[in-house]
Amino acid sequence: MDIQLKKGILEVCVLYAISRSESYGYKIISDLQGIIEISESTLYPILKRLEAAGFLTTRTAEHGGRLRRYYKITVAGLQKLNSGRGDLLEINSIYKKLFGGKL
């Protein structure tokens, strides 16, 4: 898959996972399992980028003797998620027109 296309899809998936409830890295990966494959080495740069863009906020809390970073979606993040949803619907429509919905 084209890296730029996959990057956009992964961002939408991560925002979706966090939109359901405040979350942390391992849980995000678990929540997306079966939907899209994402590794820690891919996830954390995405989270950092989304936070820097103002789409997420973070807080740190102790859990099991270790610090865990929790991510929460912002209003701007919800807007980005809705925009991404629209993009995915458009891609799906193009796919169906090109291939008749068949692989």
Nutshell version of this structure?
The protein is an alpha+beta fold and 103 residues long. The protein has helices spanning 3-20, 25-32, 40-52, 75-99, and strands at residues 56-63, 66-73. It has one domain (3-99): Arc Repressor Mutant, subunit A.
Strand content: 15-25%
CATH class: Mainly Alpha
CATH homology-level superfamily: Winged helix-like DNA-binding domain superfamily/Winged helix DNA-binding domain
Largest sheet: 2 strands, antiparallel
Rg over C-alpha atoms, rounded to the nearest angstrom: 15 Å
Give the domain tally: 1
- Which residue ranges are poorly predicted, with pLDDT under 50 across at least 5 consecutive positions? none
What are the defining features of this structure?
about 100 residues; 4 helices; alpha+beta; about 15% strand; Arc Repressor Mutant, subunit A; two-stranded antiparallel ribbon
Describe this structure in words.
By secondary structure, this protein is of the alpha+beta class. It has one domain: Winged helix-like DNA-binding domain superfamily/Winged helix DNA-binding domain (Arc Repressor Mutant, subunit A), CATH 1.10.10.10. Helices cover 62% and strands 16% of the residues. The chain has four helices and two strands, in the order H-H-H-E-E-H. The protein has helices at residues 3-20, 25-32, 40-52, 75-99; strands at residues 56-63, 66-73. Strands 1-2 form a two-stranded antiparallel sheet. A hairpin with a 2-residue loop joins strand 1 (56-63) and strand 2. The longest helix is centred in the last third of the chain and has 25 residues, at 75-99. It is elongated. The two termini are 14 Å apart. The mean pLDDT is 92.
